[in-house]
Design goal:
Layout (H helix, E strand, L loop, with lengths): L1 H9 L1 H12 L11 H17 L3 E5 L6 E5 L12 E7 L19 E3 L2 E3 L3 H20 L7 E7 L9 H7 L1 H4 L3 E4 L11 E6 L1 E10 L5 E2 L10 H10 L22 H9 L4 H8 L12 H6 L3 E9 L9 E2 L2 E10 L5 H15 L5 E10 L2 E2 L5 H14 L4 E5 L5 H9 L3 E3 L15 E3 H21 L1
Parallel strand pairs: 3-6, 3-7, 7-17, 8-16
Antiparallel strand pairs: 1-2, 2-6, 4-5, 5-18, 8-15, 9-13, 9-14, 10-12, 11-13
Helix pairs in contact: 1-4, 1-14, 2-4, 4-14, 5-13, 12-14
Bound molecules: ligand BES and zinc ion.
Amino acid sequence: MQRVLDYLKQNESRSIQELCDYVRFPSVSAQPQHRSDLRACAEWVVKHCQAIGLQAELCATKGHPIVVARTPRAKAQGARRPHFVVYGHYDVQPPEPFDLWKSPPFEPRIEGRSLFGRGASDNKGQNLAHLKAVEAYLKTGTELPCDLTFVIEGEEEVGSSSLEEFLKERRADLLCDAIIISDTGMPTPKHPALTYALRGIAAFQVTLHGPSRDLHSGIFGGSVDNPAMALCQLLGKLRDKNGRVTIPGFYDEVAPLSAYERKQFARLPFKEAEYRKFLGVPALFGERGFTPIEQRSARPTFEINGLTSGYQGEGSKTIVPAWARAKITVRLVPNQKPARIIRLLRQHLKKLCPPSVRIEIKSGHGAEAYLVSPTGPQAQAALRALKLAFGCEPVLLREGGSIPIVNDFKKILRADALLVGLALPDDNAHSPNEKFDLDCFAKGQLMSAHLWQELSRGG
Ligand code: BES
Ligand code: ZN
């Protein structure tokens, strides 16, 4: 084992260069013009996996390709070896707005112990950390105590729509003891974390159609409805002053927080004033009766992600816009069903919509929340590996982000996910100037190296 750890240290600067190579691909899954960049990125991952000694293949899907890479299987020696699937994604969020980046998003830049670039933290750096750990085993001839299969997809940031079918097709090869995922966060560099819950999600697009074309607002304004105004009024009704979503039935199925969990949340490092400053807001806002940590990880929300209508260019243009559109996601907590929430939202919006505009609602991806007990032997093994790598006591987290595919892993492969994320709160995931902390990268590799030992022993 020491040889594995030494190898990781000796090869640190090369690994960082490789992460730069990985980040250079503009693998933006949401934008059709990047289709070939996603493919090129997936091919790079395949080649990289082959170079470190894995058997890797590129699997075509209706969407972006999935990379599958396996450790060479040792000959069966009596007892069945444990098998773990390591999941990650090579696609990234759109980098816009470009002008807020200090250096171009796909030209990685290292400053101190930070590597800047879109996808550095979410999720390229995190999945590369696991590949580096396995490389260290394979290149030093150290026997792995388990079999590993990497599944690295290209559609996580757009709802993982091809992966479910793929898991069904490949079920026999992918049956495993647990899924290991580093695509979540840790509160500070001194608080490595095991995440035991994620929020679910339901995505929508609401468009209000008004006049058949943009109109002169002086000539016609006042006699027709303004779709932008109507949309603002409509959306404004969906949240009350206490931060509660007003869609009837929205909270019906929400699993309440236990006193025990609330006590655990209260123990996490959190300073309200610092948090407010860090986010650059004049005051925090959230559902009344819950702390910010609870609000952002264990309570459902309604978020407008984008709002578009009318003239967006320089100067002014006096029009009544023909349409107005909002991109919306609702974050869900355990027991809330995306299909039901979509139905409730549709009904409610249609009821609220005035007759002066026509409403069009398109629903997108959806996923249930995820919750797993953090007390089982695999979770304990993950906590040991985190402690060995980071040298401090790990914490248990519920997180607000979503990884839609974890539920399919559970349903199709009947395996739980161990979420051992390496992202820091100031990594700027989905924001301009995303970065990955190179200490998290190094310690993540150590964690992965230890994890296989700990899981195979106790898990
Ligand atoms: N890595 C995130 C998910 C995440 C981040 C979980 C932080 C917990 C803490 C992932 O890449 C992501 O952004 N997922 C999307 C999913 C969506 C597009 C379906 C999300 O949560 O917005
Ligand atoms: Zn993401």
